[in-house]
Amino acid sequence: MRLTGFGLYCYELPLSEPLPLGGSRLHHREGLLVELASDGGAAGWGEAAPLPGFSREGLDEVISQLRTLASSTMGRGVSEDILDPEGVLARELDVMDLAPSARFGFELALWNLWAVSSGKALPELVTISPRAAVPVNALISPDHAVEEARLARAAGYEAVKLKVGARSVEDDVELVRAVRGALGDAASLRLDANRAWSLEEAERFARAASALGFEYVEEPLADPAQLPLLAGSHDLPVALDESLTDMEPEALEDHGYAQAVVLKPTLLGGITRTLRFARCASRLGVRPVISTAYETGVGTTALVALAAGVGGEEVPAGLDTYRQFAGDVIRPRLELSAPRVDVRALFGERREIEHDSLRPVG
User: Which CATH number describes the domain made up of 127-354?
Assistant: First the structure.
């Protein structure tokens, strides 16, 4: 297969309700779709959508990088090596210093192109035997946490995620206690502090909440360098998220204290880097959790494929953000049925790009 065509399109989709991100409120999600075509007439699509407040790159930088990348790869022959996280192309991309979302968009378009050309579904490129179903992690709002926890329990969710850190430590402890009571033993409880606490605050939380039975706390510390001390001295289960964006996958060897790593390809820099993180985590006995950065249906299908293939066990994935889109760039929309996604059904349904929602980037 040889690459012969490249297209770049901008989208702007409304959200069902304003989304607080990075100190502001997001009403629309903006991003890019990448199209790669082969000499056989097949096309593959990817998504490059920097996340405001979390991504360091902007759309203009991503557009420039994708154009440069396309010009250097047109006419290039493509083989199954593109699927290898340690392969030639993956290593070439490593040294190009690409923005994470740009690399994810390009790699996903390439993987989808290979899937179409080879007659395989995307999960089958991640692993020979993908899981039949992917459990979904429910997101609940701190303002309505107990009510939403009860609804999640009734719906059969296996894991629930709650934001902490916006209140006093004592109020957070009581909130976690109330949510844990509402969930009972039916679901695991994940907490996300988004680096809100000082070491002293996190230690207070750890002491007060130690018996509440939560799975882990994502990024509890404003100073992540103190995470090993916190996890070791207080036996606090922690998960890495933002910290991963500043490290190479192999550097996880120094973070074996973590209970889990939250893997977001848009922020980590593509599919192959995400797979390397997942493999390193699994070797260490650290749980890889695939999660979104508010991607459309194009990016979210890749996350389902990854969640169906990485790790040695079934782990609830962070896919619940998809329901916050009021529209999509594909039709029909994805059916991310709560509390588990049927992988075969999802990839067995034919979907098309909604071109009317896109604007070509000149």
Answer: 3.20.20.120
